[in-house]
């Protein structure tokens, strides 16, 4: 059944909204398209749907060519057999929930369409609300109607355009959980557009980072968070502590790096040349905090001396900023548990040590 | 009460309003959704009758409908009669003079349809015609009904253009508003008053209908 449902596209546009994106999505796979506002996510999604046509390249769903600018093939949106959940759901206000879900089935007999739409409304937990108009439904219920409408005609591609952004946080968590359960029943590939990293990490098989219309990295959530390919990707993922250093010595599987006068050891399998400038990042797992008067395990590994500049309580976590003595202009920022701050009696201005675990430091290729 | 004048006025208003519906829908939809740079020019042309004195408009119709002008001479060749001072001429002039009253409410209704809603119709598998009949028309009908009522009421009371193009031919171009003017000129104020009351009542009912349609549209917005 899933045979021939994969999606391949390679699109370019140099118009008002530049685009350069190439991707292959497997059947049943959910790929999150992650990027800030204006990164071209919605343009890419609209191009795949055939709603934005100022692009060149090709789109292929299985063995069906949806678009090929060279061969002048351009299937209309209604010919592509796809389902979209729009950001504000775009439910037809004059139709009931049932009629909205029945609409894509207009080629079936009324009885079959009715039965299928009722089945899908039941699957998204909306039994009993079939005859309500969109304005009589809550935000979460509208989203479910939109999802049922997108899936009812068994599309070859499911596109979700920030589908959780218009609901409150409690509903968002509930809907995400429901989608995570429902997606195993979806045969088609799914592309989820989002600017929410947490959402992408929770739902996606792979995450595709988009910036200024270009795909910067496509990777599984774990791979992306541990090995962002470039400082830009790391910054887009909200990571801090990105620095430059010069390679001083290479003794496999480690290198010694000069970081503004401080020598660091970093574990790596990649070959670097002595004198080469590298960009490296202290990942959240690489940082360990010690009070100078209370030494603990691991404090000999790349010890950095500094002072606490900032402590911001954010619920159960505390955002801490430490200015290293050797490079006060390059503060290290990270989160620590609030109970740790209280137990260690950490205060602003206090001298402190930060150890950088050498096998957790990441070097950008 | 001049029943013949009332009948001509009604006939003119009904034909004008009905014939303007497809024209208003086509133009209103195009203006609301098109991003072409020349759309403001088209819009200004359509809205010209709103600001132009009816006599000026009537004068240009008179010139265009004459046997010397291409339109007038073509009409004479085809139908062997003049467009000026005929019901057909009156109807064409009335349609053009009422374009803004038909286009504006429909354009407004189309503008109220979100782009995502139009896109959703297409991605649900509907072709543009199916999307128009199943989605767009049910959503814009208060605007279409408003355009009909407004055009009907305005045509019933039209005076300047009617007088210039149609003159005052009893049974052919003598409408209710022309008849009122005629009766006032003849100091027959009672007859003028009766007919004026009919037009006043119709105008009031039309405005009441328009208000009702506006409220309906507000209620249905999600």
From TrEMBL, chain A:
Keyword Flavoprotein: no
Presence of the UniProt keyword Membrane in the record: yes
UniProt superkingdom: Bacteria
BP GO annotations: quaternary ammonium group transport
Keyword annotations: ATP-binding, Cell membrane, Ion transport, Iron, Iron transport, Membrane, Nucleotide-binding, Transport
Molecular function terms from GO: ABC-type ferric iron transporter activity; ATP binding; ATP hydrolysis activity
Gene Ontology cellular-component annotations: membrane
Protein name: ABC transporter
Species: Nitrincola tibetensis
Automatic annotation (TrEMBL), chain B:
Subcellular location per the Swiss-Prot or TrEMBL entry: Cell inner membrane; Cell membrane
InterPro entries: MetI-like, MetI-like_sf, ModB_ABC
Coiled-coil region list: none
GO MF entries: molybdate ion transmembrane transporter activity
Highest taxon in the source lineage: Bacteria
Pfam families: BPD_transp_1 (PF00528)
Domain ABC transmembrane type-1, chain residue ranges per copy: 6-210
Listed transmembrane segments: 12-32, 44-62, 139-165, 191-210
Topology in membrane: Multi-pass membrane protein
Claim: Cell wall biogenesis/degradation is one of the keywords in the record: no
GO cellular component assignments: plasma membrane
Main location: membrane
Entry keywords, A to Z: Cell inner membrane, Cell membrane, Membrane, Molybdenum, Transmembrane, Transmembrane helix, Transport
Family, per entry: Belongs to the binding-protein-dependent transport system permease family. CysTW subfamily.
Functional note: Part of the binding-protein-dependent transport system for molybdenum; probably responsible for the translocation of the substrate across the membrane.
Name of the protein in question: Molybdenum transport system permease
Source organism (scientific name): Nitrincola tibetensis
């Amino acid at each position: 059944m899933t045979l021939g449902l994969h999606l391949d596209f390679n699109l370019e546009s140099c118009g008002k909204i530049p685009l350069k994106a190439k991707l292959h999505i497997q059947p049943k796979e959910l790929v999150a398209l992650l990027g800030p506002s204006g990164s071209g996510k919605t343009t890419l999604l609209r191009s795949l749907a055939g709603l934005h046509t100022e692009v060149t390249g090709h789109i292929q769903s299985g063995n069906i060519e949806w678009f090929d600018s060279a061969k002048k093939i351009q299937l209309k949106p209604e010919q592509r057999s796809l389902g979209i959940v729009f950001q504000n759901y775009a439910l037809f206000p004059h139709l009931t929930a049932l009629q909205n879900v029945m609409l894509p089935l207009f080629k079936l007999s009324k009885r079959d369409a009715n039965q299928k739409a009722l089945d899908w409304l039941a699957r998204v937990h909306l039994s009993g609300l079939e005859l309500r108009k969109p304005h009589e439904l809550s935000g979460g219920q509208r989203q479910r109607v939109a999802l049922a409408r997108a899936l009812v005609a068994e599309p070859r591609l499911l596109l979700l355009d920030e589908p959780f952004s218009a609901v409150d946080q409690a509903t968002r968590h509930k809907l995400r959980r429901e989608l995570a359960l429902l997606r195993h029943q979806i045969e088609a590939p799914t592309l989820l557009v989002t600017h929410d990293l947490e959402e992408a990490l929770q739902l996606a098989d792979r995450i595709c980072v988009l910036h200024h219309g270009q795909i910067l990295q496509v990777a599984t959530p774990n791979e992306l968070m541990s090995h962002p390919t470039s400082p830009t990707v790391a910054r887009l993922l909200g990571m801090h502590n990105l620095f430059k250093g010069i390679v001083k010595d290479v003794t496999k599987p480690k290198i010694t790096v000069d970081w503004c006068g401080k020598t660091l050891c970093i574990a790596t399998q990649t070959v670097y040349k002595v004198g080469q400038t590298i960009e490296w990042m202290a990942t959240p797992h690489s940082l360990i905090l010690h009070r100078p008067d209370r030494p603990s395990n691991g404090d000999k590994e790349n010890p950095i001396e500094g002072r606490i500049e900032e402590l911001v309580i954010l619920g159960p976590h505390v955002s801490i900023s430490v200015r290293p003595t050797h490079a006060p202009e390059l503060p290290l920022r990270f989160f620590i548990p609030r109970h740790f701050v209280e137990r260690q009696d950490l205060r602003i201005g206090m001298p402190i040590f930060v150890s950088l675990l050498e096998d957790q430091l990441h070097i950008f290729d | 009460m001049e029943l013949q004048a009332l009948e001509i006025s009604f006939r003119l208003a009904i034909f004008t309003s009905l014939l303007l519906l497809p024209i208003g829908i086509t133009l209103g939809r195009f203006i609301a959704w098109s991003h072409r740079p020349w759309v403001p020019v088209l819009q200004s042309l359509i809205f010209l009758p709103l600001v132009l004195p009816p006599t000026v408009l009537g004068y240009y119709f008179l010139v265009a409908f004459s046997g010397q002008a291409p339109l007038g001479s073509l009409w004479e060749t085809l139908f062997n009669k003049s467009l000026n001072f005929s019901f057909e001429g009156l109807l064409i002039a009335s349609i053009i003079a009422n374009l803004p009253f038909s286009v504006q409410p429909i354009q407004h209704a189309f503008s109220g349809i979100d782009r995502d809603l139009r896109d959703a119709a297409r991605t649900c598998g509907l072709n543009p015609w199916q999307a128009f009949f199943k989605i767009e028309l049910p959503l814009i009908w208060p605007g279409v009904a408003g355009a009909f009522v407004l055009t009907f009421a305005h045509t019933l009371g039209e005076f300047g253009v009617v007088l210039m193009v149609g003159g005052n031919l009893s049974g052919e171009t003598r409408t209710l508003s022309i008849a009122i003017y005629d009766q006032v000129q003849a100091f027959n104020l009672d007859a003028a008053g009766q007919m004026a009351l009919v037009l006043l009542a119709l105008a009031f009912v039309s405005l009441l209908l328009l208000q009702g349609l506006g409220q309906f549209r507000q209620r249905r917005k999600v």
